Amino acid sequence: MNTQLARFNMVEQQIRPWSVLNLNVLEQLSQLDRSLFVPAAYQEVAYSDTEIPLAHGEVMLAPRVAARLAQDLLLQPTDTVIEIGTGSGYLTALLASLSSKVVSLECHADLFALAQTQLQSAGLRNVELRQSNGMPQNLSPADAIVLTGSVAQVPEELLKLLKPGARLIAVVGEEPMMQATRFTRGSHGDIHSQVLWDVVLPRLHGFAKTPAFQF
Asked: Can you give the residue range of the structural domain that contains 49?
């Protein structure tokens, strides 16, 4: 496979048409070798517009979804990011290329080990991986948080980790109606939410029945 051409086609045919227009995000997508993070059995579809199965019913997000999540977090190079659900590590790598540091949590030991190996192979040194089951503990407030699977509602514990001006993106709802939603903490501690786009993702493990913040 000509991975350089495959990345070009992925960006131009899948990602740009899905309203991903941030030049820095597009540049990082063009440089990041997605095939490093794809299981061997799925290498032929590494750059296809599809979710890729992982262990435990997890999936590697379609490229356009990963790209849109990264863009809509509105990341700055000095930001610290929390990612809930490392999976294969591809979105982790993309976030790391756009920020100062990523703390990524994965509940499955085998996926955790695999992502660790793949991120090291990609040469990323600003990622801290943690294995965590369910609601994360002992995390410092962050500039951005992203959930890589869907939730019925966003747990209050995660919203409390947002600094003033920080953003959290989660896919919220029940099938067949789910929406990527950005939550932003205002300067006075208030939380504002904005629905961004429609997408259906598998449930995030350990979060389906978590008590939620009520607006």
From this structure: 3-198
